[in-house]
Design a protein that fits this description.
mainly beta, three-stranded antiparallel sheet, single chain, four-stranded antiparallel sheet
Length: 154
């Protein structure tokens, strides 16, 4: 077994040769995992949701392109858990059409967020515009303590 690999011909394929040009691929022969999964499990796994806090509210924004508001649910679960879920159905295949590529995801998604204690649970609002869901959760107003100036005598 040579210690220096040969780059000009004489390609070796010994499993004991550390400089062998054969590379073992443990996944060789397997088809892509995503092609074997049912469509329901390959859905919206990358649903992106931003959560920002302003002085007045917690604001959630979710990119849900192509979904209608009827296909999205915003719910409050026990103990202040905000749940955003929905479903995009697979397009029907027509026997007269040939699909060359399918990249848009379909299926169900669900995201959950634990809300802090300082929210007004009964005043949550949600709206959807141009495929962006906005959920606004107002915060309880924190009353600032009254500070009285006391004159110092002396």
């Amino acid at each position: 077994m040579a210690l220096i690999p040969s780059f000009f011909g004489n390609q070796r394929s010994s499993i004991y040769d550390p400089f062998s040009l054969d590379v073992w691929d443990p996944f060789k022969g397997f088809s892509s995992l995503s092609t074997r999964l049912p469509l329901e499990t390959s859905a919206f796994v990358n649903t992106r949701i931003d959560w920002r806090e302003t002085p007045e509210a917690h604001v959630f924004k979710a990119d849900l392109p192509g979904l209608k508001k009827e296909e999205v649910k915003v719910e409050i679960e026990d103990d202040r858990v905000l749940r955003i879920s929905g479903e995009r159905n697979v397009e029907k295949e027509d026997k007269n059409e040939t699909w060359h590529r399918v990249e848009r995801s379909s299926g169900k998604f669900s995201r959950r967020f634990q809300l802090p204690e300082n929210v007004k649970m009964d005043q949550i609002k949600a709206s959807m515009e141009n495929g962006v869901l906005t959920v606004t959760v107002p915060k309880v107003e924190v009353k600032k303590p009254d500070i009285k100036a006391i004159e110092i005598s002396g």
